[in-house]
Write a structure and sequence with these properties.
Largest sheet: 6 strands, mixed
Helix content: 40-55%
Distance between the termini: 49 Å
CATH class of the largest domain: Alpha Beta
Radius of gyration: 26 Å
Strand order of the largest sheet: 6-8-9-10-7-11
Number of domains: 4
Length: about 450
């Protein structure tokens, strides 16, 4: 072994130990099959079996490998894959399916979830879903699909930020379809699970027939988080065929995502158009009244003793608005504390102390600046920031300007005077925007959609 090979082996040994410690199942399935070859100019060359193996590593695990190679002896090493090298393994590979996101699946247990009369779906039903103006369209479409699979809204594509109820509705559809007919076979899975099974059959079994045949007898296909298809060319091609099979046979397809099809990066145009050919419905974070209703429902279903009065629930509904998951988590934490402490009715001071980190995160999330809103609106509409703040009054400028002022009032704590100053206008102009924009959004679907997209973009900042 020459010096380059020796150094490569030493560096990879450290990185491999890190990968194994982080996730042993992924290490056994993937990383131990990679062979250190040479180290030159800070780049570690790793041998892999073939081009397809290399493409999977680069698509799915690039960030993990880069992280493992960072900071070794104070150097952030890079890596490059070279196909054509069969691995030399010193121990047998366990019979595990491919796992992503730290989840391991045994070979004997199919990742795909078939819902039948014995499969419990828990509390995620239509009856337990709180409906308001922000999610009413998606809820109605989901109910229509559950009542008559394949007859309307095929596919149904639900999108929205995390915690808005997409997964809840997906499970509710499965539960309702199962309740209506035991003969209707429903397949409910996350996109990650679908990817796992696809790659397992392709790489381990060298045969996609089992993957395809399992779906052939399914009547309703429900896939959560399809944005995970982004950049997965092989899986996109296979899913395109699956989609066509279901659609041509009038079998129902329901998909969820954190963004609408046209916003999913590196998604094949054929898939994008098929996702959009049915019903695309957005689920937005619930407004205050809906959040309060959710909390009251949770209180009635979970608390034996009333340790949380309406004042406390109103405090939670007002201060935790980003998503329902965080709201639910805060409620459970307070309810658990009340149960274990035996102190009876909780007050707001106790809630503030127990939920310090959650409340701080909510406050930080709301701490947007007017500058951020202005730039995001300008970028969305493809106009210059100087035009947004200038004197031009053409419709292509005036409407984005009003939307930016409206969002600045809604998403920040700034007064109308402060917002007006930031836009070089008086507070009366801001008040007009606050009144006018909701009217425009209710009558113009393009404006409503633009406001929704801008809000989602701002939530990522």
């Amino acid at each position: 072994m020459d010096s380059q090979e020796s150094c490569a082996a030493d560096i990879w040994s450290i990185a491999a130990d890190r990968l194994k410690e982080q996730n042993e199942h992924l290490y056994r399935q993937w990383f131990r099959k990679m062979t250190p070859l040479t180290l030159e100019d800070g780049t570690l060359k790793l041998g892999v079996s073939d081009d397809f193996f290399a493409s999977i590593i680069e698509e799915q695990y690039d960030d993990l490998i880069q992280g493992a190679l960072s900071g070794i002896d104070g150097i952030n090493y890079r890596y490059r894959l070279e196909p054509g090298h069969e691995p030399v393994l010193d121990e047998p590979v366990p019979a595990t399916a491919i796992a992503t996101s730290g989840t391991a699946q045994k070979k004997s247990a199919p990742i795909r979830k078939i819902i039948n009369s014995q499969s419990p779906l828990g509390e995620h039903t239509f009856e337990s879903f709180i409906v308001d103006a922000e999610n009413g369209c998606g809820y109605a479409a989901a109910r229509a699909v559950a009542d008559a699979p394949g007859k309307r809204y095929n596919p149904l594509f639900l999108y929205g930020v995390s915690g808005t109820g997409k997964t809840h509705l997906l499970h509710a559809i499965a539960s309702e379809v199962r309740r209506n007919s035991n003969k209707t076979e429903v397949c409910l899975m996350t996109c990650d699970e679908m990817l796992n099974e696809f790659y397992y059959n392709l790489l381990e079994k060298k045969n996609l027939s089992p993957f395809r045949s399992r779906l052939r007898n399914v009547d309703v296909l429900l896939v959560d988080d399809v944005q995970m298809l982004s950049g997965k060319k092989q899986m996109q091609a296979e899913f395109f065929n699956v989609f066509n099979l279901f659609y041509n046979r009038n079998k129902q397809i329901v998909l969820t995502s954190d963004r609408q099809p046209c916003e999913i990066e590196k998604l094949d145009k054929q898939l994008e158009t098929r996702f959009e050919q049915g019903m695309v419905a957005e689920l937005c974070p619930p407004e205050y009244e809906a959040r309060l209703s959710i909390l009251r429902q949770m209180r009635s279903e979970t608390l034996v003793q009333n340790t949380m009065d309406d004042t406390l629930l109103e405090f939670l509904a007002k201060n935790i608005s980003s998503n329902v998951r965080r709201l639910r988590g805060a409620f459970i934490r307070l309810a658990s504390y009340a149960s274990f402490s035996g102190k009876g009715l909780l007050n707001i001071e106790q809630a503030e102390e127990l939920l310090q980190s959650q409340l701080a995160q909510e406050s930080s999330a709301r701490d947007l600046s007017i500058d951020q809103i202005q730039q995001t609106v300008a970028d969305h509409f493809g106009i210059q920031l100087s035009d947004l703040l200038g004197e031009r009054r053409s419709r292509g400028i005036a409407e984005p300007r009003m939307i930016a002022m409206y969002l600045s009032r809604e998403l920040t704590q700034n007064s109308s005077n402060e917002v007006g100053s930031a836009f070089r206008r008086n507070h009366a102009t801001v008040l007009h925007a606050e009144k006018k924009v909701p009217q425009l959004a209710s009558s113009d679907e393009n404006i409503r959609r633009a406001i929704s997209q801008i809000k989602r973009q701002l939530q990522k900042k």
